[in-house]
Amino acid sequence: MTKEDIKQVVLDIIADIAPDEDLAAVKPEVRLRDQLSLDSMDFLDIVMELRKKHGIEVPEADYVQLASLDSCAEYLHPKFAAKGK
Amino acid sequence: MSSQPRIVITGLGLTAPNGNSLTEFRANLLAGKARIAVIDVRHMGPQPAGVCDFDATKWQKRKEIRNGTRVGSISIYCAREALADAGLDWDKVDKSRVGVYLGITEHGNVETENEIHNISQFGNDTKYWTHHHNPRTVANNPAGEVTMNMGITGPHYTIGAACAAGNAGLIQAAQMLQLGEVDVAFAGGVSESIHTFGIFAGFKNQGALGAHADPTKASRPFDKNRNGIVISEGGAIYVLERLDDALARGARIIAEIAGWCINSDATDAVLPNPERQTECVRMALRRAGMSPQDIDIVSTHATATALGDVQECTALRAVFADCPGTRINNTKSFIGHCMGAAGALELAGNLPSFADGWVHPTINIDELDPECALPGLVINHPVKAAKVETILNNSFGMLGINSALIVKKYGVA
């Protein structure tokens, strides 16, 4: 799975948990919170969906790594690779 | 209650299995149109149930709907519709002086069952249990969702009162208005119970779950062959104000709260006690300054259980034995048992009688149970009454909670 694929995985999750948001213009380098209406419960939803759909665990200390799409891709890429994805 | 401020209804919003507005609901009650679906209940398969089809996105963002509860959506829809009906200038209302008081039969079962099912797909590992569970299951959830949606900063809570809850919500609001705790109240009852299999299984194993080849005939109060309750969802929320405030803003007054009573059987968890029900109705009449002959419509609780209907009719016979002008009906024969919403919806369906003089019937009576034969019972077809100026709304619930609420047409003595 490429980093671009991982960004799409995260965007697909966000589309489910924030269905009112327009995700077409999300900038990968900008913090998600600065461009979308997401709160702490929403980020917990992202963590939960990564766990349920992809078997990926994100420890609480690493939540900050999910700040932007780019940081998500950097952080999650080795985790997906470890899963053979 | 004469020394207390008078309380009036100035707005109403509802969703019922056969209507998403009072106009639609009332038309179906007068036309004898029941609406009961067959739904697939987890672990139980197809069951008759009353399902509401209001558009939740009318008043909520999709994320609100996703993060909240079904009963939260029902509550927001009803409260927003009630606000529109009341004609309040919402921007100018002091939101800290608005209260939300919603009756519920139960809350939290739906979300808890869903999460137990969810983690069962992951080896019952609780790390898959949603972090939304607690805000969704706290007992104030439906009322709290209303405050967040509408920006209300006054008090909010639910009133747990089994199937007497719809009346209990209205009574609580009237009391808070009389105490001066709030200036405007959103009050009534709500239910999402069709989404929990536990309530179906519980009634089934109690021998009290209604069934019929035609789901619209499954709820048959007072019929000799009735066989139990049809579980439904729904909501009815009213805007209540003190009379003086309503008059000052030129509000349309739908009805006046005349009297009420809530008491307890203190006898059995599930079998109603007619003696206590009689006392409840008599106390409500006394507080309203009325005699039984003053009541034009009695809206019965009438769940369609074998014993419950007989017990209620025994109680009503004791109070209304000498009331030839009193008409008696029920609404569950059309929409099933909307649990926490039942009392509030049943009152709503009768309120237009003040204006049009028609009394809607109880339907689905093919053979009247002699033990439920009450003088004045309106069977299968509506009747035109000489006058309708008062309604007694009865709602009773498990653990022996009884509620009687009397409303009257505004402007009559």
Q: What would you say this structure looks like, in words?
A:
The complex is a heterodimer of chains A (85) and B (413). With 85 residues, chain A is an all-alpha fold. Chain A has one domain: ACP-like (Non-ribosomal Peptide Synthetase Peptidyl Carrier Protein, Chain A, Orthogonal Bundle). Chain A contains 4 helices and no strands. Chain A has helices at 3-17, 32-35, 40-54, 69-82. The radius of gyration of chain A is 12 Å and the shape is globular. Chain A starts with a helix and ends with a helix. In chain B, helix 3 (70-86) crosses helix 6 (141-150), helix 7 (165-179) packs across helix 13 and helix 10 (274-288) packs across helix 11. Classes of the chains: A mainly alpha (85), B alpha/beta (413). The A-B interface holds A 16-20, 37, 41, 44-45, 48, 51-52 and B 61-63, 66-67, 122, 127-128, 130-132.
* SSE ordering of chain B: EHEEHHEHHHEHEHEEHEHEHEHHHEEEE
What order do the helices and strands of chain A follow?
HHHH
Count of DSSP-assigned helices of chain A: 4
Largest sheet of chain A: none
Discrete helix count of chain B: 14
| Number of structurally distinct domains of chain A | 1
Low-confidence stretches of chain B: none
Q: Which geometry of chain B do the CA atoms define? A: globular
- Count of domain modules of chain B: 2
Question: Can you tag this structure with a few keywords?
Answer:
heterodimer, A: 85 residues, mainly alpha, Non-ribosomal Peptide Synthetase Peptidyl Carrier Protein, Chain A, B: 413 residues, alpha/beta, Peroxisomal Thiolase, Chain A, domain 1, ten-stranded mixed β-sheet, three-stranded mixed β-sheet, 14 helices
